[in-house]
Structure prediction request, 869 residues.
Amino acid sequence: MNLLYLQIPQISYASTAPELSDNTRYDFFSRVVPPDSYQAQAMLDIVTAMGWNYVSTLASEGNYGESGVEAFVQISRDSACSKLLFIRDDAPAAEFSHRSPLFIAPDEDQLILPVHNQSATPGPNLWRKRVSAMNPGDTDTFSWFYGQGTENDDTGNHVHVGTPGTLFCLHYVGQCRPTGVTLMGENHFLYVLWTENCFHFEGGVCIAQSLKVLREPRPGEFDKIVLRLLETPNARAVIMFANEDDIRRILDAAKRNNLTGHFLWVGSDSWGSKISPVVQQERVAEGAVTILPKRASVDAFDRYFKSRSLSNNRRNVWFAEFWEENFVCKLGMHGKRPGSPKKCTGLEKVGRDSTYEQEGKVQFVMDAVYAMAHALHHMHRELCAGYPGLCPRMANIDGKELLAHIRAVGFNGSAGTPVTFNENGDAPGRYDIFQYQINNRSTAEYKVIGHWTNQLHLDMETLQWTTGDSSLPASVCSLPCRTGERKKVVKGVPCCWHCERCEGYHIQASEFTCELCPYEKRPDQNRTSCQAIPIIKLEWHSPWALLPVFISVLGIIATTFVIVTFVRYNDTPIVRASGREMSYVLLTGIFLCYVITFPMIAAPDVVVCSFCRIFLGLGMCFSYAALLTKTNRIHRIFEQGKTAVTAPRFIAPASQLVITFSLISVQLLGVLVWFAADPPHTFVDYGEQRTQDPGNARGVLKCDISDLSLICSLGYSILLMVTCTVYAIKTRGVPETFNEAKPIGFTMYTTCIIWLAFIPIFFGTAQSAERMYIQTATLTVSLSLSASVSLGMLYMPKVYIIILHPEQNVPKRKRSFKAIVTVATMTSKLSHLAAERPNGEVKTELCEGVEASVPPTKTTYVSYTNHAM
Prediction:
């Protein structure tokens, strides 16, 4: 009969079913033994302490086994959920009639989040600080919204599903980016509602399989169960809520299937420290961890029970039956053991003539009786103060009043342990933890390895496994990822994941995410943090610098030698015939073309970058402005000679200098505009050598001269060069004894070839990892080669004559402009001879003819000294 419906309190000494803790259904039920939910919590703590997060469960069909497993599964889920149901920021909340819920939307794949129980005391300052760490609108750090606390508020605009992200940010503020957003107004508060969805974190336990043993198992059923457990080989730990017979048969099946040492058994109190489940299968049970409610033998009961006999215990109607069973004998003609070999004498003694061991629940039976006695005693003392026996007020005891006294009792029980009840009538959980071990002498025994009293106390050094050492075996779905790898969780199995390496320039930001390093940084070797990318520049000892410097040094020496020679022999006929003023301008440009190599290679700074901008195109501009002026003068003179006998204007040295420096001023004006629009500075280019392997990435320190700026700076000089080349082509028929038209032509043709080769080499290395080296070397070598061509073709022959053949450095005959006109006219008329004879031969003949036809007494003439060509 169920006395609870009659509101009669009950105290149980053995009922451990978790559902009896439901105070709404069993409100008059109490017990002096802990419920199986405590046992399940203790077993979960054991599994967690062992580092096992992937386990299977096995239950015997029935209330004990199925309820125990259900409690274990439920607690394993709850352990991975935050116990915090609400987070409120009451600032102030008195006027609220409507509460706007706040939810966070995490990435769907990030189901495992390290959400721990919130232990901090809620308050406006604490939660404002933590909420302000969330970044709005950023799905990587979880978006969040506030809702206005009014009835008219459209809550739907502020609800984002996904509670774990909220608690993740609240607990791990350091991993969330800061923001300036704060509470907007006084009527705002933070209200987090925890849903029914639980999300596992590292330390939670996943259930691989939940199997059940039927009450009447079919043949081969246990072999099938063992093989099914083997389908998830990584889930080696098996949580067992099974009766003794099922435990024994499961162990026997594992032994038959050669699985000794594979499974890690974790048994409930039905296994405890019993010998019967492990008889003849000690090896397969070795290492099993079992649990048993903490109990102690009551010595007073042993003395009392051992003193009982047939004569002094007649009030117990079952004692005679126990006597026959215990001593294997028969009492008289009506004994309960027919066919017994001997007759009981009545003089047998318990513990002397038979094996005796105190039943484990004796302590709890005594505690239950004493709990009821203490409750009645306290009730009598309260209601019947000083009244002997049952007073009228206790004649009709109210069940609720008695229950209140039962729940309030507190005393030391028969074994010396405290006896108390919580609000659900449950006794505190106290368990001993055993491990079944086989010592060196092959003797098997249960050894106490710890205890559980609301929290686990485990002596890890006493553990022993089938391997013979104390190293913990594994029961995990996936091994921990290596440093620099993130966990990609298997959907639906949060304890299982694939390890993915953070590739490229990503680092491991958390267990489950990779994060891109800032552009100027790269991952360290372990990919756990970002470090600055090394900054490089073109070094003087680099092969890319040695060749340009070598060419430049030779050119500077040669140019200096030419200038010194011209200054030393400034008044000699060859130097004067070369046009001294224009020669010095040209030599200055050649010298600058060589010098620009050094600032191009030097370590960039503001001064160096300024020099690079100024002299990058200036040397070429000096050179080709002078050459253009000379070729233009030659062209104008001979074109004028075809139609008139008067000399063209602006062919005097002063005019030539004005024209030349006018052309150079355009380049200088462009440089000044460049300086004003974009002052020179340095920068680090991280994209030039951003290789696929971050370990090889480098930042290049360089001047802020883009390819477009370079084209603009050199473009004007190249325009002068092209124009000069055109004039060189037009003056190719001028007799060689008149001027330098032919050497200038050869110089310009060669220079054009150099710069045509420069373009694909310079701009074709845009994607090269050595772009900076190649472009710098190409540009400086091209400038030096252009200068070398001009120096070699225009000035080395003259220096050769001046130094080695001074006898040829004598004045030439003076030629009149009329002679030049005659030559120009005859050249035009006889141009068809160019196809029949070599060009030089025709010109020589023309020169000779002109010399013969010039009257010696002519007073107006054009001399080499006055109008050098």
In short: Residues 543-568 form the longest helix (26 residues).
